[in-house]
Design goal:
It is found in: Cytoplasm. It comes from Aquisalibacillus elongatus. Its EC number is 3.2.1.10. Its main location: cytoplasm. This protein has 525 residues and is of the alpha/beta class. Strands 11-10-9-5-2-1-13-12 form an eight-stranded parallel beta sheet, with helices on one face. A five-stranded antiparallel beta sheet has the order 14-15-16-20-18. Helix 7 runs parallel beside helix 8 and helix 10 packs parallel to helix 15. It binds 1-O-alpha-D-glucopyranosyl-D-fructose (TEU) and calcium ion.
Length: 525
């Protein structure tokens, strides 16, 4: 079954979505309160970032118990009620599956040491969140591997007993009725057994898309996934189109689709904090490459935002004068491509990056560790803060802006992370009141996907390839043609308008020129 091919997904980061009891932390009852809002937007699937019991070293991506709900978010009873309410509204729920690592507080870590990686002498790999990727354990007198924080030890998938435990847990959730999984860094689970030193301490060639990855995913598919009508998306940093073809080709029976990172890395240098302006031609050619690679082979996911990425309107758009136009333009550009689109909470009202003054206002472990590390490397406070303002993960994690009341209507208490001070101007209440808001534009894009087959099935041809500011492409089937023009700048440009009717546009009426941040889609049958 391929219902996920014409579905639209909405990601909820529960900690920041809606707080129902005034403790400043979003929760499951808060999500239940907002399901009608999501239904109104028109989405089909909710991807819920982790809600499992966790000491929150990495906001739930460090799981202590896969069978228990984080007490701050509610109880298993709240979960069952939420799942039921989602299904009643004819939507589906995709859980976050974090099985590259657990929390060091998971009972497995003490009970089953051979579920993890232990060595007498560590190699020289560095952790994604800074510092070495190995931590000494006094009790064992050995080092354990952690690609992320030291409270996130990596699981050893070479061990068949571990794999069986993971599959049992997945079946338990699917039997409960969840509709699929978003799999956290799932292409990291097969490591090269040599775990060799590398010239620069970057171990990724030995753990990304490792030697047994296709075998493990196929086994997971046969043991679990193929027995359910579910949807899967694998988060895969470092996956190239050739890898993606293998992961998502239905003949291989692994996953439905993957999240790739190439288009998100184009405005970074040696690392993501090393800021570099986006070259639009690079973005066009990158997305073209992915559109072509998976056409009739596998399936793409489409995203600009998630809980790890800065807000797209601040990143590739204009979050000041042309905030509304550029947010709609970016949405058009993405949603008219082939693949399953993902909307991250707040994107549908054009939420922007935040620039807190003090490092103490930040909560994210990656940001806090990076601040220390860059300081030690001699970066100035100002330069570090600039990188954090542009790229930090807390840009995506400030609470959802529901209205213009205190704390943006997210909580009646003290929010765990401060709200973006622009909530009086940018919020859901206002978006619902204005008929030409970004919200209703997203609603239209979603409904077009349900109406025009070419959006799901058409092929992709880039046009005006070398234009520095215009991203334009055609989508075609035997019956239909779609031509999409997106202006990634405040400059005006002449275009040769194709024939056909206008399906959607972000300005009120048409014009022979492409205006600042304009998007227009032509349709011909
Ligand atoms: O992210 C994986 C990942 O590669 C991130 O480290 C990403 O590169 C980084 O956030 C960009 O700065 C996943 C989750 O999405 C993330 O929230 C978790 O922190 C991470 O895995 C560990 O579970
Ligand atoms: Ca709460």
């Amino acid at each position: 079954m391929t219902w996920w091919k014409d579905s639209v997904v909405y990601q909820i980061y529960p900690r920041s979505f809606m707080d129902s009891n005034g403790d400043g932390i979003g929760d499951l009852q808060g999500i239940i309160q907002k399901l009608d809002y999501l239904k109104k937007l028109g989405i089909d699937i909710i991807w819920l970032s982790p809600v499992y019991d966790s000491p929150n070293d990495d906001n739930g991506y460090d799981i202590r118990d896969y069978f228990k709900i984080m007490s701050e978010f509610g109880t298993m009873q709240d979960f069952d009620q939420m799942l039921d309410e989602i299904h009643k509204r004819d939507m589906k729920l995709m859980m976050d599956l974090v099985v590259n690592h657990t929390s060091d507080e998971h009972e497995w870590f003490a009970q089953y040491p051979d579920f993890y990686y232990w060595q007498d002498q560590p190699n020289n790999w560095k952790s994604v969140f800074g510092g070495p990727a190995w931590e000494f354990d006094d009790k064992r007198n050995q080092y354990y591997l952690h690609i992320f924080s030291k409270k996130q030890p990596d699981l050893n998938w070479e061990n068949p007993n571990l794999r069986e435990k993971v599959y049992d847990m997945m079946r338990w959730w699917l039997d409960k009725g969840v509709d699929g999984f978003r799999m956290d860094v799932i292409n990291f689970i097969s490591k090269d057994s040599e775990l060799p030193d590398t010239p620069d301490g970057d171990g990724s060639p030995y753990f990304m898309n490792g030697p047994r990855i296709h075998e493990f995913l196929h086994e997971m598919n046969q043991e679990v996934l193929s027995n359910y009508d579910c949807v899967t998306v694998g988060e895969m940093p470092g996956a190239a189109p050739g890898d993606a073809q293998k992961y998502t080709n239905p003949d291989n029976q692994e996953l439905n689709m993957i999240f790739t990172f190439e288009h998100m890395d184009l405005d970074g240098g040696s690392d993501k904090w090393d800021l570099k302006p986006l070259n639009l031609v690079d973005l066009k050619e990158n997305l073209e490459k992915w559109q072509h690679a998976l056409f009739n082979v596998g399936w793409n996911s489409l995203y600009w935002n998630n809980h790890d990425q800065p807000r797209i309107v601040s990143r590739f758009g204009d979050d000041q004068e042309y905030r509304v136009e550029s947010a709609k333009m970016l949405a058009t550009c993405l949603h008219m491509m082939q693949g399953t689109p993902y909307i991250y909470q707040g994107e549908e009202v054009g939420m922007t990056n935040v620039a807190f003054e003090s490092i103490d206002q930040y909560e994210d472990i990656e940001t806090l560790n990076m601040y220390q590390e860059k300081k030690e490397q001699g970066w100035s406070h100002e330069d570090i803060m600039r990188s954090i303002h542009v790229k930090g993960r807390d840009n995506a994690r400030t609470p959802m802006q529901w209205n213009d009341a205190a704390n943006a209507g997210f909580t009646t208490g003290e929010p765990w992370l401060q709200v973006n001070p622009n909530y009086k101007a940018i919020n859901v209440k206002q978006a619902l009141e204005e008929t030409d808001s970004i919200f209703y534009y997203y609603q239209s894009l979603i409904s077009l996907r349900k109406t025009y087959d070419v959006i799901t099935n058409g092929d992709f041809t880039l046009i005006h390839r070398d234009h520095p500011d215009i991203f334009a492409y055609k989508r075609e089937t035997d019956q239909e043609t779609l031509t999409v023009y997106c202006n990634f700048s405040a400059n005006e440009y002449d275009i040769n308008q194709p024939s056909g009717e206008i399906l959607i546009q972000n300005y009120e009426s048409s014009h022979e020129k492409l205006r600042p941040w304009e998007a227009v889609v032509f349709y011909e049958k």
